[in-house]
Amino acid sequence: MTISHIASRAMWSVACVVVALSVRSADPGAGAATETWAGRAASRALAGHPGLPQLRAPDRARLTPESVALGRKIFFDRRLSLNGTISCGMCHVPEQAFASNELSTAVGFEGRSVKRNAPTLLYIGHLDVLFHDGRETSLETQFVGPLVAHNEMANPSIGRVVDLLRTLPDYRGSFESAFGAPAGLDSIGAALAAYQRTLIAGPSRFDRWRFGGEGKALTEEEQRGFALFSGKAGCARCHVAGTRDAMFTDQKYHDTGYGWWREHIRQSPEATEPVEVAPGVRFNLGRDVVASVSAPQQADLGRYEVTLDPRDLWSFRTPSLRNAALTAPYMHDGGIRTLADVVAFYDAGGRPHARQSPLVRPLGLDAAERAALVAFLGTLTSAGIDELVREARTAPPDNW
Amino acid sequence: MTENRWRPDRRQVIAGPAAALALGATGGLVPAWADETCQSPYMPMITGQEEYIYLWTLGMEGVGDGSDKVVTINVRPGSSTFGKAVASVSVGGRNEAHHAGFNADRRFMWTGGLDTNRIFIFDVASDPGKPKLSKTIDTFVKDSGGAVGPHTFYALPGRMLISALSNDKDHGGRTALVEYTDEGKFVATHWIPTKEDPRGATLVDGFADGYGYDVRALIRKNVMLTSSFTGWSNYMMDFGKMLQDKEAMTRFGQTVVQWDLHTRKPRKVFKVPGAPLEIRFGWGPASNWAFTSTALTSKLWLIHEDEKGEWQAKEVADIGDPSKIPLPVDISIASDDKSLWVNTFMDGKTRLFDISNPMKPKQVYEKRIGAQVNMVSQSWDGKRVYFTTSLLANWDKKGADNEQFIKGFAWDGKELKETFNVDFLKEGYGRAHLMLFGSSKLYSST
Amino acid sequence: MAQRAAIISLPAAFPRTEAFDFAAPVPGSYTLPSIKAAPAASLLDHNGTATELSGLWPGRIALVSFVYLTCTDENGCPLAMSVLYDIEFASRTNAVLRDQVQLVTVSFDPVRDPPAALAALVAPKAQDIAERRVLPWRFLTGTSADSMAPTLAAFGQRVDKERNSERLNHLLRMYLVDGSGRIRNIYGLGTIDPRLIMADIATLLLEGATQ
To answer: Is there an interface between B and C (3+ Cβ pairs < 8 A)?
Structure first.
């Protein structure tokens, strides 16, 4: 891709204006307007963007306005869970950066507990490693798990979902039109993948500074933060920021000690649990009281659950840090609420134990350095998320 | 037929409307109305002996058929089946059965599912001893434009006002009031005011969260109040998991909203932190106030009209030791406005507060009902008090502490004495939740 | 403008009472969503003339009530009728009420309330209505004992005959019907405040709902 940074910035702002206009004029929900946003979204997915590597897409020809529009509809269709209450979008909430800001770990069918935090889907098309433990590597197959997991959407079989999509009247003809075939595992995966690959949220200030030649796009503190990030603090060794692009992840698995520590707490909890019952009102609740209303909490062994290789115990994927300021709470179980606390965790050397990655060690940062790191992370927020939210809400979620 | 006969002094007829309504808002229905004291004043009341208790019961995996159901308990004194279940109707599936309410002519009982948003309407008039499923509304979310979790069913003439708990965009706490006709046709949605969109309401403390829970009205003052709980993600979540989820714990309602009942326009938003739940207005002709209890902070609050005619919110009492998080849940006000039963879920206790001075409630009695207790309903004369156990499927206690029952008690002003007890696990019903009273005397046959 | 002001001041034609101890809502500050179409019914007027209910709606906003004339429950039909008489009385001096509103009272007891019984109620006011000194007030009844049941059911007006008694148990209901024949509000005891009804009528008039 050879579009210059300046030109591509101009393209962004033009796109935003046009989309805003089309959304306004499209209020009655005309089909043509849907095509407009989906067409723009498809083009966006296939275009090059400063700071982003090439999109991972096995078959770019299937990323069309029709497949994107269909994927969006499926993504927000609550009817596709066993009791009609959960869609992909109920945990990957557009207004919450396609993550869940209100929950540490997700809640699924009939309130069943999911042991991990719902990760953001922004830039998901640029990742090879899906889920916190990398158990999927392709969006084309990733969707099956959540649809049939008993504690997520709880369909008794994936065939039930295929049947629904073949019989719900508002889907009539849409798969045929997008893929030339009725709904099937292949086309459902292709549609969901097409939509999710459009979740590219526009350049961040960091992109403009690093790849767009805008030296003033970052403050001095933020620049110091990036210097620390790449240097003394060593963050970039896993959260890679290259010279041509930066996804802020090596797409690999590491044991920072966090997963081990959280599993240790699960097995040997403190005697009391601090509970904030209203802003500023905190009580310590006895563990026995908490236990009396708790179902057993699932163990979490990380990447090991995929490989059964003891070397992978408590390793989790390195998440991208793009839009990190919008994706709280953090870590695989949402156990840390602020970026400042995440930085403090790493500054303290994570949670040392026998298997901890040697890449994680005490950093000896001072308060100003920690603040600079947090300030830098704030520069990774994309400019175009509102546009993605508007596209996501082109129509209300499908419900019974 | 003279004109005079048609022209009684209207002021005389409806002076003290609350009392008149309580005794028979019925245009000539059977005089012996009564009820538990928490129903919409628009409907006929049972002021005498209730004959049946309808329990909206949560299905539980591995118990009986696992399905939500309405269980009917016979409480006719002297009957051979007194204190026993005499009917059970399963609706299919687990819907997070929660609250229920009669429509204004008390012939139909609407029961809601907080998870699946289905509303089951039972005919309780054709055979009051055997409710019959008459209609199911399964388009609540779509009808309402995104409200999730139909909770309180508050009867208005010809229609049902439903407070929801959540929404279909993020399963958080922002939600709405939704109106249906008695026939089950959608009429309107009224979103709870938020800070970003106060919808014309005054934010008394500069704060509004848009959350919902209960809805009750004082029609004599044209005042409607809503309280605020939490969204689907929290009320469906394992309780212990939630207590440990620092993020989730910040997503609880902190407001009571005063509305214009007639126009359904929000007027004032009061800050009432800690999840204010049930709202109970006094019945007396001068009782211009309502109680609510906050679940997490364990306080009684009074929402009252001041000397200037302005409504205010005031914290008036602690419930138990708030630092132990006793979790006050259902409350039930006596028809003479003198006392208030308050259940605390975690310690399984019921507590009686003397509220003869509503500004200074004082606990005067307590009794442990079981390992956990949620709902309380009393007869109109206060002599019979009934308790059930289930709070929410995933908030109920686990293991042996997950007792599920309805227990009936006689109250003599000093002591609660148990009169019957139905074990809902042993009988294969599930989790016992909401109670409504029925009586064949409400309906004269044609 | 004068007409608009007259409409907005409709609730002020009635006093605030202890039973309805609040300022009346401001007409037009809220909406009244359509609840359902007013059911069709073939009835008889006080002359015994066949009258289609649906033929009454165009042109005026209607306040429809269901009663039986031998009702003695003070919170029942007499209460409804006293409010209706108050509205009729107010219409003598209120042009908006007189020219744009009508009262429709339907007996659900055709056996004891034949057209002749209605005629006794209509007679004292017939001339005033004919000379447009008061708003029109129509009295209707059913054609047979059973004929009313479907109409009552469709409105949602429940009536039970009490065993061994002359009483007809019913919950007092009034219905506000716009000029297109749509029910826009339903009143029961506790909401039968003339000011609430007037605020609703004015709200409908402001939206031009007489047609």
So the answer is: yes
Asked if A293 lies within 8 A of B243 by C-beta distance, the reply is yes
**Interface contact B158, partner C, CB < 8 A:** yes
- The CATH number linked to C89 is 3.40.30.10
Q: What is the pLDDT of residue A35?
A: 62
Q: Which amino acid is at B105?
A: D
Backbone angles phi, psi at B272, to 5 degrees: -135, 85
A288 lies in a domain? no
- B104: chain C residues, CB-CB within 8 Å: 171, 188
Of A102, A113, A337, the CB nearest to B251: A102
Burial of A292 (0-12, 13-18, 19+ CB in 10 A): buried
Structural domain boundaries enclosing B23: 4-442
Instruction: Report percent pLDDT > 70 for chain A.
Output: 91
Q: In terms of residues, how long is chain C?
A: 211
Q: pTM of the full predicted structure? A: 0.93
Total domain count, chain A: 2
Say yes or no: A388 and A372 in one domain. Answer: no
Q: Is B45 on the interface with C (CB under 8 A)?
A: no
Report residue B258 as tokens.
């005063």
Across the range A226-247, mean pLDDT stands at 97
d(C-alpha B230, C-alpha C200), whole Å = 34
Res A33: pLDDT: 55
User: Domain containing C48: what range?
Assistant: 2-11+36-206
Beta carbons within 8 Å of C81's beta carbon, 6+ residues apart: B6, B7, C65, C67, C105
Mean pLDDT score, C97-119: 95
- Note whether B263 contacts C25, CB cutoff 8 Å: yes
The confidence score (pLDDT) of residue B263 equals 98
Residue A332 structural domain: 205-256+299-380
Question: Is the pLDDT confidence value at B33 over 90?
Answer: no
Tracing tokens 């004959």 back to the chain, one arrives at B51
- Across the interface, whether the CB atoms of B139 and A399 are under 8 A apart is answered yes
Task: Tell me whether residue A355 is in a domain.
Answer: yes
Instruction: Name subunits touching C (3+ CB pairs < 8 A).
Output: B
**Closest by alpha carbon to A45, among A23, A22, A63, A19?**
A63
Q: What is the pLDDT of residues B191-242, one digit of tens each?
A: 999 999 999 999 999 999 999 999 999 999 999 999 999 999 999 999 999 9
A52 or B3, greater pLDDT: A52
Whether C28 maps to a domain, the answer reads no
Same domain? For A195 and A162 the reply is: yes
**CATH code, A343:** 1.10.760.10
Q: Do B241 and A397 touch (CB under 8 A)?
A: no
Q: Are the beta carbons of B170 and A102 separated by less than 8 Å?
A: yes
| Cross-chain CB nearest to A278 (options B246, B274, B397) | B274
B84, B72 in Cβ contact below 8 A?
no
Contact B296, B325 (CB under 8 A): yes
Q: H or E segment at C44?
A: strand C42-45
Residues of B in contact with C72 (CB under 8 A): 28
B245 touches chain A (CB under 8 A): yes
Q: Of B58, B67, B68, B141, which to mutate for an interface test with A (greatest number of A Cβ within 10 Å)?
A: B141
Q: What angle do CA B84, B88, B94 make, to 5 degrees?
A: 125
User: By CA distance, what is A269's nearest residue in B?
Assistant: B244
- Does the residue A104 lie in any domain? yes
Which residues on C lie below 8 Å from B21 (Cβ)?
189-190
Interface of B with C in 364-403 (CB under 8 A): none
| Residue A118 amino acid letter | A
d(CA B321, CA A286): 14
Judged against a pLDDT cut of 70, whether residue B32 lies above it is answered with: no
How many other C-beta atoms lie within 10 A of the C-beta of residue B409?
22
The answer on pLDDT for C165 being more than 90 is no
The pLDDT, as a whole number, for residue A10 is 38
DSSP element (H, E) containing A392: helix A385-392
